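Per reviewer request, we include the raw input and output of the structure prediction for the construct analysed in the revised manuscript.
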Amino acid sequence: MLEVGTKAPSFELPDQNGEMHKLEDYRGKKVILYFYPKDNTSGCTKQACGFSERYPQFTEKGAVVLGVSKDTVASHKKFEEKYGLAFTLLADPERKVIEAYDVWKEKKNYGKVSMGVVRTTYLIDEEGIIIRANDKVKAADDPEKMLGELN
């Protein structure tokens, strides 16, 4: 996980519509950049729907929400449409941003060890500095917790 107080790594990734997004596009706004394992899984769906339901409150506070996983643009589009998600999902199938943000880790599941995305949420300030970092994310609680961080 990247340290609080460090400059957030720059990136350029396509969203669920194939449009490119750069971190620099969001200068002057707070960015909630959250990394999740996979579209359409129970925890990831709870987290995404939570951010979507609260999206108007995030925008009122001058923040944007960006979700990142290694799923494809097409997978993100289906996920967005299925749940009516109100925010941007970024596709990183080559894991460039996932690795730059240090969230590709060894995971243990029922004793089996594999590599995967560790659910992690970063709050980046208007100047591109990481001001909060959490890798002990509870999917269902994360949106409400991040909304509180903006106060």
